[in-house]
Amino acid sequence: MEDRTPRRGGILTGLPLGQGGGEIWLRLALAAGIAVAIAGLLLRLPSGIMIAGLLLGLGMAALVSLQDLARLRRQAGAAAAASGAVAGEAEGDLFESLAVPLLQFDAAGGLIRANATARALLDLAPGDLPEPAGIFVDLGRPIRDWIVDVAQGRLPGGAEMAGLRGRSRGEEAERFLQVTLRPDGAGGALAILQDTTTIKRMEAQFAQGQKMQAIGQLAGGIAHDFNNLLTAISGHCDLLLLGRSADDPDHGDLLQIRQNANRAAALVAQLLAFSRKQTLKPERLDLAETLADLTHLLNRLLGEKVGLDLLHARAPVAIRADRRQLEQVMVNLVVNARDAMPEGGVVQIETRLERLEREVIRDRAILPRGEHVVIAVRDTGCGIGPEHMGKIFEPFYTTKRIGEGTGLGLSTAYGIVKQSGGFIFVSSTPGEGTEFELWFPQCSDLPAEPVAAPAARRGARRSDAVVLLVEDEVPVRTFAARALRLRGLSVLEAANAEAALALLEDAALHVDVFVTDVVMPGLDGPGWVRQALERRPGVRTVFISGYAEESLSDDQARIPNSVFLPKPFSLTELTETVQAQLAA
């Protein structure tokens, strides 16, 4: 058995802390002649944060001391009334002054007293003795039944309940409490309280983050597969349109197919935005200029019934973000605000600078200290009910009627803001309106000096060049090969990296450009290209993928003369990209 005798100032040396934490022991003198060894927990959360749970140990020590004092008082008897009075006074002082929240109940489960720490925790006035059911909820069984069972000895070991919601009259209307019930030695029961609100919030934040990450991974995977399908659909549609004039009876049908394929591509782009796997091109954005450029479009979207009010920060504020994606976020939020005010109203957009002197926890997110730029979008519409608040950023979740929305507007905004290093918060009161706040790090970089673009190098558009096309999706490879051959290029096809490397073993084979998918079974695109360039260092490369360029950026940076073409791409985009590589 472990030696748990307190040593050296009361704390054991060599604490047995494992991956999840361990116990900590110390010795505490509570009153003259009374000293107890108490235990507490040292918890290691998934994030690595260590939380000491000594309060429970202190509470148990207080319980032991109060029981000892009650026993001493009973043993004194009538012959030692004076000693009993002293013991009673000591007990009362000890109960009141302990830094552990304590409640004492009688044998019937009624609240007798609460010490100062418990009153502060539960926002009780001195002498305020509410019903236990008015303090603790979500037990599944009346709290009074638990108290009576403990007081009457039907639960000799006491009872412990974690995760209770404690009602408070303060600003924070709800707390999570851990309650330990033990007999008090006088026929009643003592409750030791531990505020676990912070831990519960961290657990909820972790669970929410895990859920959104899982949804994002699913959305990103679906988007990749759909981009392959859309590349084949729109690509073969382009091939069919090449041989038909506007008078052809099938021309209009083919245009419809291409237009709807483009709409589907936009939908997939929104999924990629939510999953934070889209390609961003961040730049320094002065918000006053950016929003001013967007005003005309926003006014057109709002219509005649809804006005737009811009409130700019007194000093210029700037953030680092992708201009096109930020504009998409603002459009989504403004359209949502418009739809919430069918009878008309005003949408207000405000920018301001916020300086945080310390980390701030808000809506399960931790805002770091420093300067932040806030963009607030407010409306005076119908508001969002509390039952919807936890789901509004999930893809395809919408409260609109069928046909009025896809449920991707807010999830897209969420993904773009997160990928840009920011935070998005929402507050709403049903019947009064909604406010979305976007928090971004302040960009302190000076505006870049305009640099004249160098004259484009115009090389010959070669029609005798050889392209090695590597793509595991047969429909995509078929379309791409036909498109390149229509431009007079010679195309070698390979279904995977291993087949491509086998072709290149022929030293007599000349290749000008590699066109390769990034993610393939076996060796991926960057992997086989690096091997090929060891023998053919001058070949240029076009990477194609349904994933974002960010998933490739590190590998691409190590491969010279390479460019990225996202799927879905059109016939023209593919051929022009390859011709540009040939002409470079």
Automatic annotation (TrEMBL):
Catalyzed reactions: ATP + protein L-histidine = ADP + protein N-phospho-L-histidine
Q: Which residues cross the membrane?
A: 24-43, 49-66
Enzyme class, top EC level, equals transferase
In its keyword annotation, does this UniProt entry include Kinase?
no
This enzyme's EC code(s): 2.7.13.3
Ranges for domain Histidine kinase come to 221-444
4-aspartylphosphate PTM sites in chain numbering:
D517
Q: Which residues form the Response regulatory domain?
A: 466-582
GO terms of molecular function? phosphorelay sensor kinase activity
Q: Which UniProt keywords apply?
A: Membrane, Phosphoprotein, Transmembrane, Transmembrane helix
**Highest rank taxon of the organism:** Bacteria
The protein here is known as histidine kinase
